[in-house]
Specification:
With 709 residues, the chain is mainly β. The protein has 4 helices and 38 strands.
């Protein structure tokens, strides 16, 4: 098999041709006149009181590519705007996203930004994207983006998102929407200092460039000492977008970004007799010279041409690169009698991922048989080169006292060297349509077909192989407006998840096909004029087949044939019961289970709850705006979870209280005090193996100054 070359861009000229073709086609309509250089004006208004609502009339970019509002979309979609994030002090994507309906954060240093949604977990089931474009998942890992600075809003689609985003999204997708350049000059700064040496500095703004261009740049640096010993961390990022409008019907956006992050190298706290030991809350059993570094670079170009007659042509070309490096000792077991911790797993892993792709789309907004019809068709291509370097089999062992110990240095008997390369190519065609029947009924349908080819080069064993996958996804839905304020909807959809990350597919899993999932969902979305708010409710059932299980007659053999399912109810509301008072609340009740699963040794897990899935979730935020000030208090509840499929490792439910108080010194300056985990709750966010858990952050305080010019 031919080995991979280092430059993905040189090997993917086809990914650049549609962009050039779109530019030539769009510019061929005639010369550019000076008076054609017009950019759309953007109005900016200050927030003076709590704006109750779930933004149901906002056009969404995640539940559909047809420009449907959240109310018109036959699916569960949340939109969290930047003002709400600022008010609550939610700087991280995880903090912000888990205030939405039904999401819990289960990230570990190995998985990065990872979530549970509707009973399905991890980056192979709950996808993440920026402006609708996903970074490929390798070894179950997603690490970017993690900071909300520079984004306008976060949209979350729950349930299978495969019709729009392909495989690996049965539980849903989290999509971050960038702030766009504007013609008006603006400059926002945010300065934060907090307990434990925490700091965050963000600066961003837009400026016009001549008569036909605008530039937006957002930058942020952050860091601190962390909430455990030797928990220091730091990050920095730069987002930039150049917007060009050489003609009134032509828009071009070019983005270039970089991110450098060194998160806290903390892999968990060992359990004492299966329980969290409070006296070990701040202990870090990692080595004294750890490495946990994440570097991301992105380049993207998007062209949109309004061709007239309701037709729009779009093309987006991109290149992403991610470098990750871990060097740690990661597994800990506490001997209660000796009060000592045995450390194993001296592990060094490096990822090098390069992804290039192109998406070409044609959309039409017109009529069909006298009825309004919105249509969208497209083609998508992606190529990913991935190199995995490690020191497998990760040997090494040490024993340290549970308290007051010398961490020691990284010492592995195994050399770190490149182990395998993979090349993944994926092509997809997709179509979506929304037909307005009469004044009250909208029918929505979508279809996607993917073809995926993975080639793996084993650099040590030489056991190279190729594998091909095909996937189909369908969504059929209807939205009926009972009144202008109340809509009900129903939908059926299908999707697929990989049995393991396709980019890092290994020999043991090469024969496993994609899993198949199907969902049915019904719901209601309503505006409440009397309460100046909105509410939504949804009931759903998802079944995923062909998950990896053991052969019941020969438990030593892994086969596909297991089944996992989830059914539940989700409710969300945002109301203003009294002037200047706002209440945001949501709750989720799940029944998630394995219907059929046999694990090693022949043990059946049928009826058990999948690991890291809370079946009860709730969020509440109450805020009040006074004369020159605003106060808010919020609660998060995450129900009981299990750290393994056997349900023998139980993670207790927890509730967290947060509060904020802000002062508007003048229309451009706001001071904000944020308090997190007011009760100093001791809790676990996720299990890391069978003997340790990752602990959540204790009580903390931050003071932020927001300045706008």
């Amino acid at each position: 098999m031919q080995k991979h070359r280092s430059s993905l861009v040189c090997r993917s000229p086809l990914a650049l041709r549609p962009l050039a073709a779109s530019l030539v086609l769009a510019l061929s309509g005639g010369g550019v006149q000076a008076d054609d250089k017009v950019l759309t004006a953007v109005q900016v208004s200050a927030r003076t009181e709590p704006e109750a609502g779930l933004d149901l009339d906002r056009p969404g970019a995640t539940g559909s590519r047809l420009g449907l509002s959240l109310r018109e979309t036959p699916a569960s979609v949340d939109a969290l705007d930047v003002e709400t994030l600022r008010t609550r002090g939610d700087r991280s994507v995880a903090e912000a996203a888990t205030r939405a309906v039904g999401l819990s954060f289960i990230g570990t240093p190995g998985s990065g930004q990872s979530y549970s949604s509707r009973g399905f977990t991890g980056n192979n089931s709950v996808a993440q994207a920026e402006n609708g474009v996903r970074l490929a998942t390798d070894a179950g890992t997603q690490t970017y983006p993690s900071d909300t600075w520079g984004y306008e809003r976060i949209e979350i689609l729950r349930g299978p998102a495969s019709v729009l985003f392909g495989d690996g999204a049965v539980g849903g997708i989290i999509n971050l929407i960038r702030k766009a350049p504007a013609r008006e000059r603006s400059l926002d700064t945010s300065l934060t200092g907090g307990s434990r040496g925490e700091y965050h500095v963000g600066i961003g703004g837009s400026t016009p460039l001549g008569e036909a261009a605008a530039l937006r740049v957002d930058a942020a640096v952050a860091g601190g000492d962390g909430y455990i010993h030797r928990g220091d961390h730091d990050s920095r990022k730069l987002l930039s977008t150049l917007h060009l409008a050489p003609r009134e019907d032509l828009q071009i956006d070019i983005s270039a970004d970089l991110s450098r992050e060194n998160p806290t190298a903390y892999f968990g706290t060992p359990l004492r007799d299966g329980r969290i030991a409070r006296n070990l809350r701040r202990e870090n059993y990692n080595i004294d010279d750890p490495r946990y570094a994440l570097d991301d670079d992105r380049l993207r170009a998007r062209v949109e041409w309004q061709a007239g007659g309701g037709w729009t042509l779009r093309n987006e070309t991109y290149r992403f690169a991610a470098d990750r490096h871990w060097r740690n000792v990661e597994q800990y077991a506490l001997d209660s009698a000796a009060d000592a911790v045995t450390r194993t797993g001296y592990l060094e892993i490096l990822h090098r991922l390069e992804q290039a792709g192109n998406r070409l789309e044609l959309a039409h907004d017109g009529t069909l048989g006298g009825m309004r019809n919105r249509f969208h068709v497209g083609w998508e291509f992606m190529q990913v080169d991935f190199r995995h370097t490690n020191n497998s089999p990760y040997r090494g062992k040490s024993v340290v006292p549970a308290k007051d110990f010398e961490p020691g240095r990284f010492d592995s008997p195994d050399p770190t060297r490149p182990k395998f390369d993979t090349e993944t190519r994926q092509q997809a065609v997709f179509v979506e349509d929304a037909l307005r029947v009469g004044e009250t009924l909208t029918l929505v349908a979508g279809l996607r077909h993917d073809r995926i080819a993975v080639a793996r080069d084993e650099l040590v064993s030489g056991r190279d192989f190729d594998k091909r996958f095909n996937a189909n996804a369908v969504r059929l839905g209807a939205v009926h407006a009972l009144t202008p304020a109340t809509s009900v909807y129903a939908q059926a959809s299908t999707g697929s998840d990989p049995a393991t990350s396709l980019v890092s597919l290994n020999l043991a899993n090469r024969n496993f096909d994609l899993t198949r999932a199907r969902q049915t969902e019904v719901g209601v979305k309503q505006s409440l004029d009397a309460l100046h708010g909105e509410w939504t409710a949804a009931a759903f059932h998802i079944r995923k087949d062909d998950i990896v299980t053991r052969d019941p007659s020969n438990p030593g053999i892994s086969v596909q044939g297991g089944t996992q399912s989830s059914r539940g109810i989700e409710i969300a509301a945002s109301i203003e019961p009294l002037r200047a008072w706002r209440i945001d609340a949501n709750a989720t009740v799940l029944d998630a289970r394995f219907d059929e699963l046999v694990e090693a040794g022949g043990a059946s897990r049928a009826g058990n709850t999948p690991a890291n899935v809370p079946e009860r979730l709730a969020n509440l935020w109450v805020s009040h705006v006074g004369a020159g000030w605003e106060a808010g208090i919020g609660a998060r509840y995450v129900g009981r979870r299990y750290g393994n499929n056997a349900n023998t490792l139980r993670l207790d439910a927890y509730a967290l209280l947060d509060a904020t108080l802000s002062w508007r010194l003048d229309p451009r300056t706001t001071l904000r005090l944020n308090l997190r985990n007011l009760t100093d709750k001791l809790y676990a966010t996720a299990a890391y193996g069978s003997t340790q858990v990752l602990l959540g952050a204790p009580r903390s305080a931050e003071l932020t100054a927001d300045l706008r010019f």
